From TrEMBL:
S-adenosyl-L-methionine binds at T181, G207, D229, N271. GO terms for biological process: methylation. Its EC number is 2.1.1.-. The lineage of its organism: Bacteria, Pseudomonadati, Thermodesulfobacteriota, Syntrophobacteria, Syntrophobacterales. One of its GO terms (molecular function) is protein-lysine N-methyltransferase activity. Keywords: Cytoplasm, Methyltransferase, Ribonucleoprotein, Ribosomal protein, S-adenosyl-L-methionine, Transferase. Methylates ribosomal protein L11. It catalyses: L-lysyl-[protein] + 3 S-adenosyl-L-methionine = N(6),N(6),N(6)-trimethyl-L-lysyl-[protein] + 3 S-adenosyl-L-homocysteine + 3 H(+). SUPFAM superfamilies: S-adenosyl-L-methionine-dependent methyltransferases. It is an enzyme of class 2 (transferase). GO terms for cellular component: cytoplasm; ribosome. This is Ribosomal protein L11 methyltransferase. The gene is prmA. It is found in: Cytoplasm. Belongs to the methyltransferase superfamily. PrmA family.
């Protein structure tokens, strides 16, 4: 299981396996709130909808585990998790997915001591208007005092002080609707107006996804801004979004990992999985300048202690945590 309260060793061992395999891609992780999609579903496609009823307190945990284990996007409701897969041959559900899903449900029940999820329902899905359906729900969103996140196809009635970021997520993570992205956006805005002298400094966005955090940094007045992601699809999405945001034309976007970047930055932000953050602690801490700040998100509350300890061991001073629902952001400094 990817989430175990206080299980620092397990977090690190799991993340190490990902790192050794050269894959800490965001493209297979948790998607945005109720905007978890596979946009290549078309009318007449032979797709299956898998629905898993469960208690409300199980939803986020279960969705995280399915997204992480199966490498697919998921949707959540108050008492249900669901996802879509292609039908293979005449099988109602791919046997490999069926086996892995059964193991996930059993482990979730045992770990949480919950009565649910007991099972799941599979039904055919035609995908008549997949793109239109998720676009209907993706509306402009205000985050913090000045940031407005808007889809590329929506008109925005912006105020003079607003900083508007145009986003078409494609297959990448980052529309601002998930708690972890909002935490990072608000933190960046706070750094931009802080008295610590970091305004105008350099910014490193690790796991940039759609580029949303990098673009926010540029609009908030950071100097050099670099965003990286190991997922080529995510980088393509970020590059397309950069074209939609002319004021962010100077943002650098690369396909790669932290190990590919040698310089240090005044501010570093990483919104990725907790187990990966724990494994990357040494490399990521090395990218923080002196003085400098680091923000980590993508962390469930029960994972915070393990991640915090991993970075304190690298000589960073813990500053604070910010919370939004079941998720948190951990902030550190280097003097």
């Amino acid at each position: 299981m990817g989430i175990e309260a206080g299980a620092s060793a397990q977090l690190c061992s799991q993340a190490g396996a990902w790192e050794q395999g050269g894959c800490w891609s965001l493209g297979t992780w948790w998607k945005e709130a109720s905007f978890h999609w596979r946009r290549n579903v078309t009318k007449g496609s032979d797709w299956l909808l898998v629905r898993i009823p469960c208690e409300p307190e199980v939803v986020e945990f279960l969705a995280y585990e399915i997204a992480e284990s199966l490498g697919i996007g998921v949707e959540t409701e108050d008492t249900e998790v669901r996802f879509y897969v292609r039908r293979k041959d005449a099988e109602p559900l791919d046997p490999e997915i069926e086996g892995r899903l059964g193991s996930i449900l059993e482990e979730v029940r045992l770990f949480l001591g919950s009565r649910t999820p007991k099972g799941y329902h599979v039904s055919a899905f035609s995908g008549s208007d997949w793109a239109g359906e998720w676009k209907r729900h993706f509306k402009p969103l205000r985050v913090g005092r000045r940031l407005v996140i808007a889809p590329t196809w929506e008109q925005v009635a912006a105020q003079p002080q607003d900083l508007v970021i145009r986003i078409d997520p494609g297959q990448a993570f980052g529309t601002g609707h998930h708690e972890t992205t909002r935490l990072c956006l608000r933190w960046l805005e706070e750094q931009a107006v802080s008295k610590e002298g970091l305004h105008g400094g350099s910014l490193f966005d690790v796991g940039t996804g759609t580029g949303i955090l990098a673009f926010a940094g540029a609009l908030l007045g950071f100097g050099r801004v670099l965003g990286i992601d190991p997922d080529p699809q995510a980088v393509e999405s970020a590059l397309a979004n950069r074209r939609e945001n002319p004021a962010c034309a100077g943002v650098e976007l690369r396909c790669g990992t932290v190990a590919d970047v040698k310089e240090r930055f005044d501010v570093v932000v990483a919104n990725i999985q907790a187990n990966l953050l724990a494994a990357m602690a040494e490399d990521l801490a090395e990218r923080v300048a002196s003085p400098g700040r680091l923000a980590l998100s993508g962390i469930l509350l029960e994972q915070a202690d393990a991640v915090r300890s991993a970075y304190q061991r690298q000589g960073l001073d813990f500053l604070e945590d910010e919370r939004d629902g079941e998720w948190c952001l951990l902030a550190f400094k280097r003097e």
